[in-house]
Amino acid sequence: MMTTYREVLSRPGAAMFSATAAVARLPLSMLGLGIVLLVSARTGSYAQGGTVAAAYVLAAAAFGPLQGRLADRWGQAPVLRTVGLIYAVGITVTLVSIDAGWSTPWPHLCAAAAGLGTPQTGSMVRARWANSVEHRGQLNTAFSIEAVLDEVVFVVGPVLVTFLTLQVSAYSGLIVAAIAATLGSWALAAQRRTEPPTIAHSAGQRAPISWRLLGPVVAMCLGLGVLFGSTEVIVVAFTTEHGHRGASGTVLAIWAAGSLFAGVVVGASAQPRDPLRRLRWSILGLALLFVPLLFLPGIPWLAIGMFLAGVMISPTLIAAVNVIERDVPSSRLTEALTWTTTGMAIGVAPGAAIAGWTVDHRGASDGFLVPLVAGLAASAVAWSFRPPALDQSPVNLEPVWH
């Protein structure tokens, strides 16, 4: 197992750009929970916290694909430098608006400004891997490394933001997240040797992306986003109802630990001949594992259930990336991967808001109906769509989008 990982990480600059991008992705697991903790403490409403977090995520989703397109065309370095600065300013004004008690919609607009500058380092680092590995067989391991690091981020982030917000300062969690994203994106921008080459396009000559493939995958990712966004809010509410609000970060970290464990195993295995088949089964398993969470009596049982559900996350996300990478032109890979991130981000927003409303009106346990339904809907998409043939050239696929 270790030999497989060692071969991939020994590529020039690979270990450094992978580690740097992991630091830059810390806000993925810190911002939403940090905003919910901070706003709910100030207002007493989980729904209010969920809507502010949703504004941030929606703005990030809206700008994400454009950021990926600019990175493919102009290079990652100038894009990362610019968005890192925008993000730092956006988080600053968000904290000011919350601290000053500005009325709606000002905190939402400030959070949206931060979202516009969210660095899309997850997509960019995967594009670097596609440009760096020697042969396709190593991509499964490379993408698994990033999935594992995503889960490390989701293990560390919730615990860190909960500790900082509740024990150090109400605003320190969001401040640390902003520093990690800004400095991490600038450090990744400085690593020019591993940056994928840009490809000049004449008007109307951009390599096409097939929406017969990308559209359903984005729809599945939207369902996953609802699942992720709602679960985060529900866990905070569940632990609060049982008198241990500070345990929310630990439970979310255990959820991510299950995914980390599965990602390590998947990364050491051979790339699947049919990644779509793996995607279908793993996303169905993820959805069904939310059924017992509706009936759990306490936090220890919740932690066990969340770990088991987490085991299905990495296989699902790795398979989705493999499905995209096999059929998308390399000159537009960052943009295509960013669309999947956008799908998840768009789903997080309504997921957090719907879960907040459900918790406020029906309690935390019933809130788990939201991720269950979202997971089943995503699974239905995965099992129903028919992608183009995997051995067909992407430039011949219809319909296309330029």
CATH class: Mainly Alpha
Give start-end ranges of low-pLDDT stretches.
389-402
Biggest sheet details:
2 strands, antiparallel
Superfamily at the CATH H level? MFS general substrate transporter like domains
Report on this model:
Helix content is 75%, strand content 1%. The chain is an all-alpha fold and 402 residues long. It has a single domain (2-391), classed as MFS general substrate transporter like domains (Growth Hormone, Chain: A, Up-down Bundle). Mean pLDDT is 82; it is low at 389-402.
What brief labels describe this structure?
402 residues; mainly alpha; two-stranded antiparallel ribbon; disordered C terminus
Give a quick rundown of the structure.
This protein has helices at 2-9, 14-24, 27-43, 46-74, 76-100, 106-116, 121-132, 139-168, 172-189, 211-241, 248-267, 275-288, 299-310, 313-327, 333-362, 364-367, 369-384, and strands at 209-210, 400-401. The protein is mainly alpha-helical and 402 residues long.
